[in-house]
Amino acid sequence: MSLFIRAFGTPHWPTVLLTYVIGGAGGMLAKALHLPLPMLLGSLLSVGAAALFDLKPFGHLPQAPQKIRMIFIPVIGVAIGGAARPEILQQAWEWIPSLMILGLYIPVMHYLGFRMLTATGRIDRKTALYGTAPGGLVETVQMGEEAGADIQMLSMLQFLRLILTIVVVPLSFTVMEGHAVGSAGGAAVAGHGMGAADVAILLACAVVGAAVGLRLKLPAGHVLGPILFSGAAHVAGLTQSVPPAWLVAATQVVIGTSLGVRFAGMPKRRILDALGLALMNGTLTIGGAAALAYLIAGLVGEPARAVFLAFAPGGLVEMGLIALSLNMSILYVTAHHLMRIILAVSFVRAFGGRL
After folding, report:
1. Count of Cβ atoms closer than 10 Å to residue 317 Cβ
2. Residue 268 class from Cβ within 10 Å (0-12 exposed, 13-18 middle, 19+ buried)?
3. Which of 52, 242, 290, 299 could join 263 in a cystine, given CB atoms 3.0 to 4.6 angstroms apart?
4. Has residue 185 got a pLDDT over 60?
5. Total domains in the fold of the chain
6. pTM confidence score
7. How far apart are CA 319 and CA 316, in angstroms?
8. DSSP label at 185?
9. Predicted confidence (pLDDT) at residue 89 exceeds the cutoff of 90
């Protein structure tokens, strides 16, 4: 896991501050250029470039403590939960066929990706198994390290899977929609004016939800907990408000920056090797999600773009941001990504010991 921790011990705070300034500037530039999901992609690309080229203005590589990311991520959970309405319980029954198809799709894609990468002869079987898991980045890296996989290559494969999906999916939607998605900060959930009571309720959903989610060790608990608490509060009619767009935009910068710093210190030759393998696997999984979306959209009763987003192998938080941007079936997408993580981790745990 050392590749995912850019600061050992106490962070160098001037470097941390400059890193976020670079991320924010990259987000604003991406917004000016009308790129999709600009605050997330712009911050990721700008900080990633600074990290990759060993920028050290204060004698340190770019730093973004993961604890800061953990503080902001519940904002996305609260925003996703804000889409919940009383009729959501009835709609959830309609997702069963789609979830059943996902239950077959994930292990099939994982197996095909595993076979494809091992066939190249450039990676061992253990690293290929854990590196092609279409979900559960932290969990699969940890299990792969314990199993004796090449931890550096495994970490890069999983990280690049996430990065490629975050880049390709918004660009795909930009082509389909005819304009950049998420250009207004990434939140398109209809909300009402926010009073003191609404602020208190949403803050409680974020703090208590994250604490409960992590305590119960739920998959992506720091975002799932706030989703559940916020959804319950909205279904119960306690509030109809959602986090403001500026806060969601700031959260995108924090998330993008935290992803970009992970390039710091990585050997460039190994990054290129991992990128080639990740592109192969990404073409398979993202292309498979797109093809399947058009095949089953009518069967599951959801638009093809919602099915594509639900089956894409990206992060729950990042795919949730795209769903928020497009004001599509946010909870449908979220439910599928939660199941994707569970399936991916379970598949690896079941078959990893057999190698």
Report:
1. 24
2. exposed
3. 52
4. no
5. 1
6. 0.79
7. 5
8. S
9. no
Tokens of 18: 């400059």
Distances from the Cα of 44 to the Cα of 19, 52, 230, 256, 262, angstroms: 11, 12, 28, 4, 10
What pLDDT score does 131 carry? 94
- Cα 98 → chain centroid: 20
DSSP alpha helix (H) spans, the chain = 13-32, 38-52, 66-81, 88-93, 96-119, 125-131, 137-147, 151-177, 196-215, 221-235, 245-260, 268-300, 304-311, 316-326, 330-352
Domain limits at 119? 2-352
Spatial CB neighbours of 215, under 8 Å, sequence gap ≥ 6: 221
Q: Which of 9-18, 107-116, 172-181, 265-274 has the lowest mean pLDDT?
A: 172-181
Q: What 8-state DSSP symbol labels residue 4?
A: G
Give the distance, in angstroms, between the CA of residue 240 and the centroid of all CA atoms in the same chain. 25
Intra-chain end-to-end CA distance of the chain, in Å: 22
DSSP tag of 262: G
| 165 phi/psi in degrees, rounded to 5 | -65, -40
Host H or E run for residue 148 = none
Band the pLDDT of 139: cuts 50, 70, 90.
confident
CB 209 within 8 A of CB 229: yes
Task: State the pLDDT confidence band at 186, using cuts at 50, 70 and 90.
Answer: very low
Residue 195: predicted pLDDT: 87
pLDDT band, residue 3 (cuts 50/70/90):
very low
> Residue 282 is inside which H or E element, if any?
helix 268-300
Residue-by-residue DSSP string for 90-139: HHHHTTHHHHHHHHHHHHHHHHHHHHHHHHTTSS-HHHHHHHT-SS-HHH
CATH code for the domain of 288:
1.20.1530
Contact 140, 345 (CB under 8 A): yes
Q: Is the dihedral of CA 7, 11, 12, 18 positive or negative?
A: positive
Whole-angstrom distance, CA of residue 257 vs CA of residue 59 = 19
Residue 18 CA to residue 238 CA, distance in Å, equals 40
Q: Average pLDDT, whole number, for the chain?
A: 86
